[in-house]
Amino acid sequence: MRRTLYSSDHDAFRELVRTYLEKEVVPHFEQWRQDTQVPRSLFLELGRLGLLGMAIPTEFGGGGQDDYRYNAVIQEETARAGVTLGGLRTHLDVVLPYFLGLADDAQQARWFPGLADGRLYSAIAMSEPGTGTDLAGVRTRATLDGSEYVLNGAKTFITGGLHADLVIVLARTSTESGDRRSGLSLLVVEKGMPGYTVGRKLDKLGLTVQDTVELAFSDVRVPAENVLGEAGRAFSYLTRNLAQERLAIAVGSVAQARAAIDTTVSYVQTRTAFGQPIAQFQNTKFELAAMAAELEAGQAMLDTAVLALVEHELDPVDAAKVKLFCTEMQGRVVDRCLQLHGGYGYVLEYPIARLYADARVARIYGGTSEVMKLIISKSLGL
């Protein structure tokens, strides 16, 4: 079906991204996969190309384009190329909006130029070993001591934490109110601060090139000027970007489902059984036809939501619907595509095996499918 989401500017940007991935990423990706991480130099290269600073104001070296569609293009093209770029999606779609929405003038002058050109790379630290979705229950604490906060605690499942120069840390700075959601703050911890430690890199089922680490904070002294927004109001800030965060996951899910179908179509046309390509079997045709139709439904739903986000009209309920449908669709598609590969689908040498492993977490992070259903059911008055 014809998509009307993108303009000629987006198309030109897509060509830039596609060319870069083909020339500079695809030839090295297998080595990155073996290393289970991307090199830090990747983000400097992306910064020089202007891919990191599209949303950053021009006075700081950015593109001044507050248009999420550029981020979507990057996700679509990485999926098409069969690669991943570490924690780039989290940096652009999840973390950067906090800086753009909350940084004061002094913070913008300090951090925005580096965020635009790749010298600064970011992560966000919310989840803790005993606290997942219940962010109001975080145990990491920061106590004001003069002009500094003394930060103590631990975080886990931190995407991009290995390379991050700036980490936005959710911590409790006050317990005066009886409301658990009050008294939480966002503190920007900078690489090299004494007491800040990057712990072990978690060995995951999928997304192996995307570093996910544990972080520890032991009496880390964070200047008060590193607080994003107002102290004590972090919980309200966390809800502002949830729609985009969940939409970004859906963008990846649809793009990766499309990649799964494309690689499977190519495979069944060359793989033979009983003297003919398995593409000639009716079951193969029907399976792929059904998947193609389901993919188009997800793409149409997603494109509508992306336009709503660009126009600042995407509400949390619709974002939950899109994430729920697209991630569940991705799971169904990659599973059926792997089945059509037979035994080879279980071998990591084949792209479908990696797509299968990578897909599973989409129904967990950014809010599980069950949480999405709770949000949607509440909108129905249930």
Secondary structure layout plus pairing:
Blueprint: H1 8-35, H2 41-49, H3 69-81, H4 88-102, H5 105-117, E1 122-125, E2 141-145, E3 148-159, E4 166-172, E5 184-190, E6 196-201, E7 212-223, E8 227-228, H6 234-240, H7 242-270, E9 272-273, E10 276-277, H8 282-310, H9 316-341, H10 351-359, H11 369-379
Parallel strand pairs: 1-4
Antiparallel strand pairs: 2-3, 3-7, 4-5, 5-8, 6-7, 9-10
Helix pairs in contact: 1-3, 3-7, 4-7, 7-8, 7-9, 7-10, 8-9, 9-10, 9-11
Written description of the protein model:
- There is one protein chain.
- With 382 residues, this protein is α+β, with helices and mostly antiparallel strands.
- 49% of the residues lie in helices and 15% in strands.
- The chain has helices at 8-35, 41-49, 69-81, 88-102, 105-117, 234-240, 242-270, 282-310, 316-341, 351-359, 369-379; strands at residues 122-125, 141-145, 148-159, 166-172, 184-190, 196-201, 212-223, 227-228, 272-273, 276-277.
- Strands 1-4-5-8 form a 4-stranded mixed sheet, with helices on one face. The chain has a 4-stranded antiparallel sheet with strand order 2-3-7-6, with no helix packed on it.
- β9 (272-273) and β10 (276-277) form a beta hairpin.
- The protein is globular.
- The two termini are 35 Å apart.
- The mean pLDDT is 96.
